[in-house]
Amino acid sequence: MPLDCRTIKNARRQLLEEGFCLVDGKLPSGRLEMLQAWSDEWLRRVKHSAKWKYQGSDIHISGRRNVSKRDPGVPKDAVVDDLIEHPAKIMAALGIGDLRSGGTFQIISKPPGAPALYWHQDWARWDDPISMSPWPQQVFLNWYLTDTTSENGCLRVIPGSHRQRLDLHSHLVAPHEGGGYDVKETNDWMFCDHPQAVDVPVPAGHLLIGDARVLHGTRANASTERRTVLLGWYYRKSNAVPAGWEGEVPAEIARRDPNLPFRWNREPGAYLR
Ligand SMILES: O=C(O)CCC(=O)C(=O)O
Ligand SMILES: [Fe+2]
């Protein structure tokens, strides 16, 4: 068993402490090949935007049964419903069964020669004390369709950065539409070789789960094959302490106004220490 493929209990501990974990995705036989052919077809059909330079591609597709509320206009495909629903048992075993899919998956695919993806985190509620939660409020589920390695553009993570401020945080440009699309490859902070960074190679068919707050990026794809990941977002609707939670509850969360309105802010402030 590869070192990163731990038991569910260890995986939960790692998700809470380090902000990511890796588990066996338990895909039925043939599913990986089907997803490869399916995503290749979308990649062939969709015109690639210049803003996808660092992600490789970012095609959003909604389910049919699980329709995206935020993006009702995106194309719908029943393959996405299977992707959304398949991990229910795994997530329940990890104690994150109360997170619900946002209704989409994204096809993020680095062609051969594609550059690295810059350091970033994807949490957008930094004005809310819930940002301090010791439990995950929002996670990404990544299905890599080929084995990923340091050579072909595997994920990189800074363990613990979901709940702890680092030097890097104050030097980063907000990701993607927030400014990341336009950063230069020479931007030393966005592409730095941080001493606390770890490469996370993933065997195809394993499931990488990441806390939205954790700092992550990718290696460049220096191989001759494309590296595709199917990435889906899952959210906790409630801002209350999860049922059965036995760990600490930050005072800021205990006294949080339950009627606090949602405000979009991707830049960590006072709630990241
Ligand atoms: O390509 C990957 O492995 C990760 C992509 C990602 O984190 C993003 O697009 O926000
Ligand atoms: Fe990301």
Account of the 3D structure:
By secondary structure, the chain is of the alpha+beta class. The chain has one domain: q2cbj1_9rhob like domain (Jelly Rolls, Sandwich). It has helices at 8-18, 31-45, 78-85, 88-93, 251-254; strands spanning 20-24, 59-62, 99-110, 138-144, 155-157, 198-200, 206-211, 216-218, 227-236. The chain has a 6-stranded antiparallel sheet. It has a 3-stranded antiparallel sheet with strand order 6-5-8, with no helix packed on it. The longest helix has 15 residues, at 31-45. 38% of the residues are buried. Bound molecules: 2-oxoglutaric acid (AKG) and fe (ii) ion (FE2).
Approximate strand percentage: 15-25%
**Termini distance?**
36 Å
| Name of the CATH homologous superfamily | q2cbj1_9rhob like domain
Main β-sheet, in a few words? Answer: 6 strands, antiparallel
What is the architecture at the second tier of CATH?
Answer: Sandwich
Low-confidence stretches: 1-5
- Average pLDDT, rounded to a whole number, is 96
Shape: globular
How would you describe the oligomerization state of the chains in this entry? single chain
What top-tier CATH class fits best?
A: Mainly Beta
User: How many DSSP helices?
Assistant: 5
